[in-house]
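TL;DR need structure tokens for one chain.
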Amino acid sequence: MEWQISRKATLRLREPARVRTTMVVRGLICWQDWTDGQIVLFDTATCQFSMIDLPTPLQTDAEESTYKLGETKDGKFCIVDIQDNALVSWFLTTNDGNAFERWMMYTKVHLPPIVKEFTGCLIEDEDCNVSVHLVAVINGFVYLSFFYYKDTRYACELYLSLCLETSEISELFKGAYRRNEEAHP
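>> reply
TL;DR here they are.
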């Protein structure tokens, strides 16, 4: 196969420093933050690029996205994001010919009860500063990191996994904040 350059097709790309490979799913290399409102895909089987639109709630003018790309247990391409204190996931449906069709909401899990159970803090509590971050989505599990100050005396960190299929939560690590760099399961 020979590479061909098509002068008719152009992409409005963001600054190269912001572009990052975020996931390899079912033979697709995926880039987020390359264009507004879309994900750029490279199919390793056909050596072709394509683009898919983000789910409507994720199409914003934000400089950098907070969502993570991954796959469900049965291998469906999915996106997970935190919106309005809830963990929301979508999966990409396909037609009979394996072409992508549309995003469907998969799960929505409210975070305040989880934060309360594992940290003893309320998200809106002024005495307990809590931040929740998505780390990764792997094989139907969402990995989350929590950073919080309890009673402003000491900093704590907590890592959880959440199964998208069953909403079962497992604590992976809880302890004093250790100034970790990027954590990855």
